[in-house]
Amino acid sequence: MELRQIAQRATDLDRASDFYTVLLERAPSARFADPDLLFFDLDGVRLLLDANAPSALHYFEVDNVHETIERLGGAIEVVTPPHVIFVHDTHAIGPEGHEEWQAFVRDTEGNTIGLIAFQKP
Predict the structure, then answer these.
(1) How many helices (H) and strands (E) does the chain have?
(2) Which of 5, 51, 53, 107 is the least buried, fewest Cβ under 10 Å from its Cβ?
(3) Mean pLDDT, rounded, of the chain
(4) pLDDT per residue over 57-76, tens digit each?
(5) How far apart are alpha carbons 97 and 99 in whole angstroms?
(6) Contact between residue 75 and residue 19 where contact means Cβ atoms under 8 Å apart
(7) Is the pLDDT of residue 13 over 90?
(8) pLDDT digits over 23-54, tens only?
(9) What is the C-alpha to C-alpha distance for residues 11 and 36, in angstroms, rounded to an integer?
(10) DSSP conformational letter for 7
(11) Strand duo 30-32 + 5-9: pairing
(12) What angle, 0 to 180 degrees and rounded to 10, lies between the N-to-C axes of helices 13-24 and 65-72?
C-alpha cells in the first residue's frame, strides 16, 4: 500500500498556490475549475488543496527549517519556532546521527503545518 494523496483546506486557491509554490519550491501540477481544486506533485504523492477539505496537520521535510521560514517571510505566522526535538541514535525513524529540527507555522489559509529537517549536530 502506498500513500497517493493528502488533502488540505484552502479557501483562496490563488493565495494558497503562491504560498505552497514557495514552500515546496515547485509549481502546481494541475488545477481544475469545477470543482476548484489545486494539486502539487510531491514525488508521487499528490497534495490536494480544496475549500471542502478539512484542515489537517502535514509535516514537510525541508533542507533547513530556519532557512525555509526565512524564505517564506511574511507569508506565515510562526506558531512554534525551530527547535531540536531529539537526536536519532538509530535509523528507526530518521537518519542515525542526525538532529531532528521541527517548527510549526500557519499557512495563508490558517492551517498549521510542520517543518522537519535532519541535520548533523
Answers:
(1) 2, 8
(2) 5
(3) 96
(4) 999 999 999 999 999 988 89
(5) 7
(6) yes
(7) yes
(8) 999 999 999 998 999 999 999 999 999 999 99
(9) 10
(10) E
(11) unpaired
(12) 140
The answer for 97, left when phi > 0, alpha when psi is -120 to 50, beta otherwise, is: left
Q: Fill in the DSSP letter of residue 110.
A: S
Rounded CA Rg of the chain: 15
Q: Where are the beta strands (DSSP E) in 22-89?
A: 30-32, 37-42, 45-50, 58-61, 77-87
Q: Which three cell numbers stand for residue 40?
A: 502539487
Q: Read off the C-alpha cell for 78.
A: 510562526
* Nearest alpha carbon to residue 26 among 39, 14, 37: 39
H or E element in which residue 106 lies: strand 99-106
pLDDT per position as a tens digit, 80-111:
999 999 999 999 999 999 999 999 999 999 99
pLDDT score for 75: 82
Residue 78 β-bridge partners? 105
Structural domains in the chain? 5-119 (3.10.180.10)
| pTM across the whole model | 0.92
